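Technical note accompanying the year-one report. For the benefit of new consortium partners, we illustrate the data format agreed upon in the data management plan: each record pairs a sequence with a structure-token string. No post-processing was applied to the example shown here.
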Amino acid sequence: MQFSLLHFQALQQPQPSPLTSTHTPIFLQKHITLCTTLNSIFFFHFHTQRYKKGAVQSLQLSSPQSSFTQGNMRPKSQALNLRLLLLGIFFSFVLLFALRSSLSSPQEDLSPISPTSLPKVSNTIKEGKAANCSPTCTKIPTSLAQALIHYTTSTITPQQTLKEISVTSKILVNKSPCNFLVFGLGHDSLMWRELNHGGRTIFLEEDEAWIEQIRQRFPKLESYHVMYDSKVNQADNLMEVGKGPECIGVGDIRHSTCQLALKGLPNEVYDIKWDLIMVDAPTGYYEEAPGRMAAIYTAGMMARNRKDGETDVFVHDVNRVVEDKFSRAFLCDGYMRKQTGRLRHFRIPSHRDGSAKPFCPL
């Protein structure tokens, strides 16, 4: 009996096991402890019965009635062992059912599965938020959204065709954000400003009423009113004037004495070094219209007067006589890059970079 009690006490001591480590969930630790206790109890009863059985057998051997006692004790001992076996099986099923219920409990599902895996999941979530919701990320610019909505819902098409627009847009792709000067304020103005997003785009318009109408719809467009003294029916005379020495000398156009020079523009128009200039105004389709003679000449002189670099100049409606002749004369065939539809593209270098250049390349 002493051996059994000592063995039972030893079994009650906490045994190191990987299943009861700090990494095991609390509910599993409780059930493991319960299993250990039940096993200890069964083990204690088992050894107790063996001890009793041994003692009885010893007494039977020493007693004259040993054969009778042995015959009577054997059925009782077998019945007791059978009861213990059935009791152990019953408790095993109860324990298994309780353990299974705990594993499937929603409350226990909320507990962490593995402490080492949690930081990885957390980092993944943080990285996803950083990639999608970073403070450095910006939404689509309001002006660009406005342009998309305008052209999607508008039934009015721009004055230039897709192929003509593509010529200028390719240059803007390489140069934007840049300085872009446009003679004319029309249905394509919002597009030009957004193609030069982040740069400065200025529009020069002859019609004050039209400027006010556009400003009410698109107040962020930078536009200025320009007055022209010329008329289309004066084009031939102005062509001869443009060949004079006062018109081919390079310098600040504000101080030019050439009749073709536009000297009433805002000062920032003269001070800015323009990367692109588009001539799509003023009106020039009838005799009394201002015509584009002065606009084409002024664009060419601004390009030549820049300190260094090159300026891309575009002239629209070159199918008309004035636009055709004046672009060739003052922007020069030697500087023309291409013609697409009614649009011509010229690339004019600085004439102030220290190298002596003729007005038009030979």
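Partners are asked to follow this layout when depositing records. Confidence is low (pLDDT under 50) at residues 1-12, 16-24, 58-74, 104-131.
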